[in-house]
Known about the structure:
This protein has 142 residues and is mainly alpha-helical. It has helices spanning 18-30, 32-42, 50-61, 67-77, 80-85, 102-108, 124-127, 129-141, and strands spanning 2-4, 92-96, 113-117. The chain has a three-stranded parallel sheet with strand order 1-2-3, covered by helices on one side.
Amino acid sequence: MVALDSLTYLSLFPAQSEERTDAMVRMFQEDFAAGVRGRVEGGSPAGFDPVLKNAYFEKMVAVRQPAGLRSIEGLVHWDMDAALRETKQPVTVFAIRDFATQEAIERYGDRFDIVLVDLGSHHFPVEAPEGTAKLLAGVTTA
């Protein structure tokens, strides 16, 4: 299994308290655009191209509702740690170097092959498709 920059939003691992998930969902309910803007900013390294950030924001904020809100609800209520514990096959995580925290490496380094990459933002598969393809090809040939 390969995960592309799944360590950026480490705060979503493991399942959060009801109070915390309700607060995040409420933020998106009250101002979906502001919530999306925060996620885009949070997934962009310092000095990242503002034009690209705005393009990602425009595409993500345009999702029809209530589908966008329901996807956020599902994400914040999902116990990702539990799902990962059930994953038995080898897991390779390609993580943006600027976002991979020591906490993530300590928490998952013994279970995942964490490969730090410098291919852009959280959206690097879109920004660097050739580089991403090379990473994936390396996993399949290993």
